[in-house]
Automatic annotation (TrEMBL):
The species this protein was found in: candidate division LCP-89 bacterium B3_LCP
Domain of life: Bacteria
Protein name per UniProt: DUF454 domain-containing protein
UniProt keyword list: Membrane, Transmembrane, Transmembrane helix
TM segment ranges: 12-44, 79-95, 101-119
Entry's Gene Ontology cellular component terms: plasma membrane
Length: 123
C-alpha cells in the first residue's frame, strides 16, 4: 500500500515539475533543464513507461539520456541555463516590489548555477 502511495506521489510530482519545465521554455525565468532532470528522477522511480516517454522526447530526450549516461550537459546548455536564469531572475528581482518575492528569487537563482558548475560537461 505504501509503495502505491509513493508511486502516485512521485508520478504527480514528476508531471508537476515537468510542467514547470515546459513553462520554462516560454518563460525564461524558469530554467527548463533542472526541472526536466528532476521530473525524470521522479518518473523513473514511479513509472518506467513515462520515464521512457520522457527519454525519447525529441526536445528533452538527448539532454536527459546524456545526463543519465553520466556524460553530463553540453557547454552550450550550461551557459544558456546560467545566462537566462541570471538575466530573467535579475530583471524580476528589480521589478518585484514584494520583499518575500525578492528573497525567493535569491534562493532560487543558485539552483541552475550550481547545476551548471557541478554537472559534468560533455562535448
Amino acid at each position: 500500500m505504501w509503495r502505491e502511495i509513493k508511486n502516485k506521489v512521485f508520478l504527480s510530482l514528476g508531471f508537476a515539475i515537468l510542467g514547470l519545465g515546459l513553462v520554462g521554455i516560454f518563460i525564461p525565468l524558469l530554467p527548463t533543464t533542472p526541472f526536466v532532470l528532476l521530473a525524470a528522477w521522479f518518473l523513473a522511480r514511479s513509472n518506467k513507461r513515462y520515464h521512457e516517454w520522457l527519454r525519447s522526447n525529441r526536445y528533452f530526450g538527448d539532454t536527459l539520456r546524456g545526463w543519465e549516461a553520466g556524460e553530463g550537459l553540453t557547454k552550450k546548455a550550461k551557459w544558456r541555463m546560467v545566462i537566462l536564469a541570471t538575466v530573467f531572475i535579475g530583471i524580476s528581482f528589480f521589478v518585484c516590489p514584494n520583499p518575500v518575492g525578492r528573497v525567493m528569487m535569491v534562493l532560487v537563482w543558485p539552483i541552475p548555477v550550481a547545476i551548471a558548475v557541478f554537472a559534468r560537461t560533455r562535448g
